[in-house]
Amino acid sequence: MKHVFGWARFAVAALLLSQCSFAAFAQERAREQNLGAGKESSQSGLTGAGVGSVDGKAARPGGADGLGNPRLGGVRHPLYRLTRSDVVAVSFTLSPEFDQTLVVQPDGYVMLKDAGMVLAQGLTVEEFADAVRKAYRGYLHDPQVAVALKDFEHPYFIAGGEVSKPGKYELRSETSVAEAVQIAGGFTQQAKHSQVVLFRRVNDDLVEARLLDMKKMLKERSLNEDPELRPGDFIFVPQNALSKIAQFLSKPSMSMYVSSTQF
User: Fold this and answer.
1) Are both 220 and 178 inside the same structural domain?
2) Distance of alpha carbon 112 from the chain centroid
3) Residue 158: its pLDDT value, please?
4) In 3D, which of 28, 29, 72, 23 has the Cα closest to residue 229?
5) Is the pLDDT of residue 157 over 60?
6) How far apart are CA 198 and CA 50, in angstroms?
7) What burial letters (b/e) apply to 77-114, b meaning 16+ CB within 10 Å?
8) Domain limits at 108?
9) Could you tell me the CATH number of the domain that includes residue 124?
10) What is the pLDDT of residue 262?
11) Which residues contact 16 (CB under 8 A, 6 or more apart)?
12) Where is pLDDT greater, at 214 or 45?
């Protein structure tokens, strides 16, 4: 009988211990949740690039320069980024004597009056304005800067190979590969419709190549696989079948597909 009562006392003690542990755990979880709510509320009162982003960059939920659903990767509606030979006008609201018009040099830099060299290539207009503000903080107190893009290289695409009018064309609006072929005069009788190549620059040294079966697309009356062009794209229509083509190749190797007499 004593043995039975001993087991009963042990069971009651174990039950009380488990209840205490559960209560402590619940209190700890409640405390963590309250702390988390406090952090979120404190973040909601902030403004600027740090809000809604772990790495300190502004969240871009899908407007200009936001990620969309592009057919060959990248961004759907990217903001324009400065490049060589672009012309920008820089104006100072409170110090008009520093107003100036600048041309992006071949090395990507511009020479600011009294502030020296500043990198412009690869920056959006807003990012470049921030770079100018930082450059003049040693000369002006809280400089108010506005930047306007005056002249730039117009977006273009190139069509070559077996099209009626090979050449360089302005990319004025959203244009697919099939539409670009028609802009270039359409296929010639020697064209290989089933192996049209779309070349797209990845960086200064690398080019992406993609084979497109335009014959199948047009036959099935389905253009779901017809990608939209991006500035600088090159469309090549071969005369004979291309048995193999690497997905990525160096820019010099593209010369085998391009004849200087076409342009």
Assistant:
1) yes
2) 28
3) 95
4) 72
5) yes
6) 38
7) ebeeebeeebebebebeeeeebebebebeeebebebee
8) 87-151
9) 3.30.1950.10
10) 46
11) none
12) 214
